[in-house]
Amino acid sequence: MDTMEKKISRDDKIFATLTHNGTDIADISGNNFSCMADIIKNIFGKSGKWFGIAMLSIRNYSQGWRINIPLSSRPQTGHKPALDGKQYVLPFT
Fold first, then answer.
1. Which residues of 30-63 are buried (b: 16+ CB within 10 A; e: fewer)?
2. For 5-25, what is each residue's pLDDT tens digit?
3. Residues 17, 29: contact at Cβ < 8 Å?
4. CA proximity to 32, closest of 16, 21, 46
5. Bridge pairing between strands 87-91 and 82-84
6. Lesser CB count within 10 Å: N end or C end of the chain?
């Protein structure tokens, strides 16, 4: 199943971890996310400044699925997270 086909409901219990160079740099959990962008925005806000490739692991406990999404970050200003093909590109803020 494609990453973008995964459905999230506001009532779903979500766990997510962002790992960069083998180190967990941010994690979140909760049930107030309505889409992948909500999760990515929230975890990116907690991760601090980093650049390169990281892996975002999202588990939807309520629906019983897990996905891993590669993310890349590069120094930029004034941009929001964007989907580049099947990979999110996250700029510095």
1. eeebeebeebbebbbeebeebeeebebebbbeee
2. 788 989 999 999 999 999 999
3. no
4. 16
5. antiparallel
6. N
